[in-house]
Amino acid sequence: MQGEDSRLSMTRRDLLRLVGLSAGGAAMYAVMNRLGHAAESPYQGTPVLQGTPRGASVLILGAGLAGMVAAYELRQAGYKVQVLEYNHRAGGRNWTLRGGDTYTELGGFTQHCQFDRGHYINPGPWRIPYHHRGLLDYCKKLDIPLEPFVQVNHNAYLHSSKAFGGKPQRFRTVNADYRGNLAELLAKATQQSKLDAQVSREDQALLLESLRQWGALDEKYAYVAGPGTSNRRGYDKEPGGGLSAKPLDSQPLSLHDVLGSHLWSGLSDGEGYEFQTSLLQPVGGMGRIGEAFARKLEGVIRYNAKVTAIHQDQGGVTVSYEDARRSGHVQSARADWCICTIPLSILSQIPMNVSAPMAEAIGAVPYAASVKVGLQFKRRFWEEDEDIYGGITLTDLPINTIAYPSCDFNRPGKGVLLGAYLYGLDAYQFTAMSPEERVRRVVEYGSQIHPQYRQEFENGVAVAWHRAPYTLGCFATWTDELRDKHYDNLCQIDGRIALAGEHASYLPAWQEGAVTSALDVITRIHQRVVAGGTA
Amino acid sequence: MQGEDSRLSMTRRDLLRLVGLSAGGAAMYAVMNRLGHAAESPYQGTPVLQGTPRGASVLILGAGLAGMVAAYELRQAGYKVQVLEYNHRAGGRNWTLRGGDTYTELGGFTQHCQFDRGHYINPGPWRIPYHHRGLLDYCKKLDIPLEPFVQVNHNAYLHSSKAFGGKPQRFRTVNADYRGNLAELLAKATQQSKLDAQVSREDQALLLESLRQWGALDEKYAYVAGPGTSNRRGYDKEPGGGLSAKPLDSQPLSLHDVLGSHLWSGLSDGEGYEFQTSLLQPVGGMGRIGEAFARKLEGVIRYNAKVTAIHQDQGGVTVSYEDARRSGHVQSARADWCICTIPLSILSQIPMNVSAPMAEAIGAVPYAASVKVGLQFKRRFWEEDEDIYGGITLTDLPINTIAYPSCDFNRPGKGVLLGAYLYGLDAYQFTAMSPEERVRRVVEYGSQIHPQYRQEFENGVAVAWHRAPYTLGCFATWTDELRDKHYDNLCQIDGRIALAGEHASYLPAWQEGAVTSALDVITRIHQRVVAGGTA
């Protein structure tokens, strides 16, 4: 399959080059547009499931995005579909916590979210990259309004407890000063003929021209205080109107100070393919997607159904389950096929008769730890006092991230922000605490960056994914080695059972991984049904 | 005044340093927050006009933002206020063109905007930077919802008709490849000891570490095809879910290709202080601000009033005006003071008895040419075909800018984008054409970037600011020389007349310049009224 893709890709490129050379750029582009994203994206629109399923039935385990996409499409194609879901709600990790919601984690702690009306956090996914076409298409089908998610905010902070006396620095100043100092260094090296071996004379002239503009260098290619640098990093006194409105320039940081601060590690935060503009979010919370899917699947999803065993035979698959709220009474469901979207962290503990390679794969992939904490404050002080509208502050404190809401800007009244997004060891430590203690610590840490926390904090919720009873972790953490050994085995249809979910994708943690893995699985099952008549 | 500001700024900094050294970073930050933006921003909140105006009256010329801010505040402070406005609507350049609107430009061309309901363009200002605190405060007072304005979109294009066969390049690829190639050059120079004179050994180690991350270099500090570079610039085949989901890496452009394309000139588009994240826009169009102000000033603004003369004497100011729709019948208005916000391009043609320095200043400042063209299409092909959600494409074609709407993302149905934002000579050329011809040319140029234009175009509107009867240009273009000579003279209160507007600010073209100049002017007039009893 990969070989074919790769050949197709080359053919496409060769074709485009041919058209470009013979008919010009516009013609080439027209052809490119006609070819569409076929070779660029693994998502080629909802698969057209041609041919009748002839009464075939599919049992889907898990009403997260993967399970609901599969259920939605298979029903449309004429399959008999039922979904078993552990929770009392659909969505899985697609989930928005709002005021009035209750959440009980493993260990028995129950939290009652006390946010005011209209405020929320997304404990799971919270961003939709522009190229996650499958998910975006479902947002369109489900009529879910989207708005921009602000990732990089030049006025948010980069913070290190070990640099600048612990004083947070605006992203814009570190960004401008790192860029400017790099540009100056490279310009000097060019002027001193130190790049002659690598860069032609002609390119050196262009390089200098580009560095001046890109790095905000002065006419001597120096990065020094002046209108040009202030226009990037900010002013000591900003320009205004009327008399006494003349701006005062600010003083750039030296390369030594920027490098020593290690704050440059936050400068690429919006450069990764999943974090570039435009990032989007559903208006009202990511959970809007799961909620909308659930409405489309009313009567198809059985809630509070805890799967205890999965058994396949020649004729189909039988799944045993009990009421998730009180164990004891075991029920069963049966269908011709089973699409299992249960996270591997849970599935590895459920008896299931699949081949050894798939069973090994299921047991091999560890799950990432993550803790997210939402905090409500009496007022949106980050906007009112600090001119921060959305975006993210990064810190070396265990809380790692403070994310300001990308909605309701400039409104009076309360505000909810994401006070922490903990990873790795920090996440494990916080997972071990009670929710109240997590919130208390997060407020304490955060007040090092925003002293207003002390006055303005009202309440919070803390979700530690390793204590989420339905996932026992946040997402599958594949390594290259694990992929080589187990990925294809995990994704094969094993008799009458196939897996789907972010764990069965090259987009771990992303909803698009769940969506595209579900579409891939239903396409392959349907091919078997139509071809083999096994149903 | 400047000397005082500068001393204040130093004192503040010294104070913070003192607190930081003696009490730590958090304490320093707490003090900084308490000091607030006083020394950073020329806007320090709405001025408190203490003391009674004792019946004083103010005549305000122009119901743009400057005029309406002045009117709003002076009324609150107890002044008798009237506003004369040339147009049949308030707002001035704060203006949104919507379907059903009619606009007649100098020369007689009338355009009937045919956009569908809900679609619009802002012919004037269209972005609110996060630090334009005066304007943001009025948005809050006037209860105007804001949403993010997407400036930089990594998936929009940088386009040169002279590079890559005229094929537009995604911002992300040029950005990643320029960065990556710079980082590689600098890393090599460091490793070859060519920076030893400028960078210490210790800093060199940090520099290399930072360059690897920042430039997406591999373990040998090379910028080459691989998962790291694809994660910045995009993939030949994107990662997905299920089988056959493995991504294929893309091939970076060489430094030579990036430099030769000149596309690097678009890479700093979101780095300037007024263009950094977070940029905001009013939901429904920038005109929402002017419209809301006008509702607050109902009965205070006289519309269709064309000022023909301004005359001051010892006791007050008399302004002659006629109906802008049919000249002839001259009326007059009189008040103790006059705040004139009429653009200098118009004001220089109106008889007014002010001092020679102010008169010279009024005549000295040229106005920028600018043309904006809005186009309606049958569908949002930029989103559907090209995954572009908001943001800006830059091109060397005369149209300069294509800006995709930062709202209603991912919706089915029609869409309106800004098809051109012409400057300088290009703008003058387009100003000379009929509106229909401007639109036709813009569609023709734009189809070099988006071939879909040919199929999908429906209708358009074109505003050439030099033909706007109430401005005769877009904004005041100050040079340093003009500022030194004329700015303070322009901003002085001249007898009983004072000017306000973006032209009386260090923020030309920006609404914040109009707002802060108005606040400055009313503060100074009020001081005279209270102190001098001249009213």
Radius of gyration of chain A equals 27 Å
Characterize the main sheet of chain A: 5 strands, parallel
> What count of structural domains of chain A?
4
Q: Approximately what portion of the residues of chain A adopt beta-strand conformation? A: 15-25%
CATH architecture field of the largest domain in chain A: Alpha-Beta Complex
Estimated helix fraction of chain A: 25-40%
Query: Which strand order does the major sheet of chain A show?
Result: 12-2-1-16-22
Please tally the β strands of chain A and state the result.
22
Can you tell me the overall shape of chain A?
globular
Biggest interface and residues each: A-B, 133 and 133 residues
List segments of chain A where confidence is low: pLDDT < 50 over at least 5 consecutive residues. Answer: 1-20, 34-39
CATH topology of the largest domain in chain A: Polyamine Oxidase, Chain A, domain 2
Task: Write structural notes for this entry.
Two copies of one chain form a homodimer. Chain A has helices at residues 2-23, 25-35, 65-76, 133-141, 171-191, 201-215, 227-233, 255-261, 287-296, 344-347, 356-364, 381-384, 424-431, 435-446, 453-456, 480-491, 511-532, and strands spanning 57-61, 80-84, 97-98, 102-104, 110-112, 120-121, 128-129, 146-148, 157-159, 169-170, 279-282, 301-302, 305-312, 317-323, 330-335, 337-340, 370-377, 391-395, 401-404, 415-423, 457-464, 497-499. In chain A, β1, α3 (65-76) and β2 (80-84) form a beta-alpha-beta unit. In chain A, α1 runs antiparallel to α2 (25-35). With 535 residues, chain A is an alpha/beta fold. The model of chain A is unreliable at 1-20 and 34-39 (pLDDT under 50). Chain A is globular. In chain A, 35% of the residues lie in helices and 18% in strands. Chain A has four domains: 2-35; 57-86 and 304-365 and 478-532, 3-Layer(bba) Sandwich (FAD/NAD(P)-binding domain); 97-152 and 277-287 and 368-467, Alpha-Beta Complex (Polyamine Oxidase, Chain A, domain 2); 171-260, de novo design (two linked rop proteins) (Up-down Bundle). Chains A and B meet through α1, α2, α4, β8 and α5 of A and α1, α2, α4, β8 and α5 of B.
